[in-house]
Amino acid sequence: MKRIAATIAVSAMAATSAEAEGRRPRVAPPAVYETAPGLGHFTDDVLFGEVWERTELSPRDRSLVTVATLVATGKAAQTGSHVRRALDNGVKPEEIGELITQLAFYSGWPNAMSAVTETKKVFEERGIGTVSNSEAARIELEAAAEAARAETVNTNVAPTASVLADLTNRVLFGDLWQRPDLSARDRSLVTMAALVAIGQPEQLPFHVNRAMDNGLTRAEMSEVVTHIAFYAGWPRAMSAVPVVKRVFDQRDIPPVQETAVIAEVNITRAGDGRASAPEQYFTGKVETSGFYRGDAPARIGGATVSFSAGARTAWHTHPLGQTLFIVFGQGWIQKENGPVEQVGPGDVVWIPPHVRHWHGASVDEAMTHFAVAEALDGNSVTWMEKVSDDDYNKGRELD
Fold first, then answer.
1. pLDDT tens per residue across span 30-47
2. What are the sequence ranges of the domains in the chain?
3. Residues 265-314: pLDDT tens digits?
4. 172, 318, 343, 350: which could join 322 in a potential S-S bond, CB 3.0 to 4.6 Å?
């Protein structure tokens, strides 16, 4: 304890001296500069000297995002200092307590309980007494959106896990999300931050849309992802970017206006829109064509995908599943931890929702398939890392 106290005292004296000389005070303690001077530089000059100073997100919001990230990732040792900063930035003790409560559901009870222990120390240090539940009126959720959400849960979750579906509707959204102890906007903010921090891109589209419906702007949304890069790592932030982009793009599509005119039949001609598939999601030469999307309220879409020999997708999942119609050649498909299976012309493949998988051509022969999937909250696929050569070459055992 004496060593810790001495370090804090040295940091405080350094900060006072820096302020007196008109320099920015150091945040990183001397031990950081003595052990990892580069980390000291990036801590003081970039994280706290630049990122925390950016006005695209208020200091209060940055504190909410940071504490949410630390709670969600179980970084108990760092939680106390940022709870102090959050209090200094205007976050109320009751809001910190509710943030921890919210994230118990999204990152697990053990993380929340560990955060309570560290937060209690800060409250006692500052003379903050027992926190009580708010007596304000409960938050009313938008009825149509809630009905759609509940229908999705009942359709996709209840048949497999009926109790989980019941708890989701009755407790998570029927109780927790309606508590007035944290505003709807802030509750969305910390939930989205936690999902980015723990790497849950499949859950992000719903919560990014919900956050924007609850008042978070695009600039704030982008800044949240940037801020989290420093506290949960660049890979987590980078994985979130394409998901957030898809939500932004989907929200730019004007809503379909109801009209008495009978809708026209649309024909997508063979080869329309032929283009090379994005390299970040595919290995080898892959071409796509014939993209189509059904008019709302339909949410189906698809395309023809042609793989040269040895080409394949990256690992990915689909929120509502995917159907593949093999029209040419010989292909391989594999779900995570399953065998590589061979497919050929006339075969129809169904991949269930959220099953991690890849598909592509065999090593010696090209393959073309027509892929069909439905979108959930504007998202029909979540891309992950590329398939390694070792994983792909397991298909050679089929030859």
1. 999 999 999 999 999 999
2. 50-130+144-252, 275-398
3. 888 888 788 889 889 899 999 999 988 888 878 889 999 999 999 999 99
4. 318
The model's pLDDT over 76-99, given as tens digits with 9 standing for 90+, comes to 999 999 999 999 999 999 999 999
Amino acid at 235: P
Rounded distance, CA 228 to CA 240, Å? 10
What the block records as the tokens of 366 is 């090209």
| Closest-CA residue to 41 (of 24, 22, 28, 51) | 28
Query: Which amino acid, residue 223?
Result: E
**CATH for the stretch 50-130+144-252:** 1.20.1290.10
184-203 b/e (C-beta count within 10 Å ≥ 16 → b):
bebbbbbbbbbbbbbbbbbb
Level-2 CATH architecture, domain 275-398: Sandwich (2.60)
CA geometry: angle 70, 96, 224, nearest 5 deg: 50
Look at residue 74 and give its three-state secondary structure.
Answer: coil
The Cα–Cα gap between 360 and 369 comes to: 9
Task: Determine contact, residues 251/379, Cβ cutoff 8 Å.
Answer: no
Helix (H, G, I), strand (E, B) or coil at 118: helix
> Among 102, 67, 73, 79, which residue's Cα sits nearest to residue 184?
102
Beta partners for residue 383, in sequence order: 316
What predicted TM-score, i.e. pTM, was given to this entire model? 0.63
- For 300, the 3-state DSSP assignment is strand
The answer to whether residue 19 scores a pLDDT higher than 50 is: no
Structure tokens at 56: 């695209």
* Torsion from C-alpha of 208, 209, 211, 214, nearest 10 degrees: 180
pLDDT at position 292 is 87
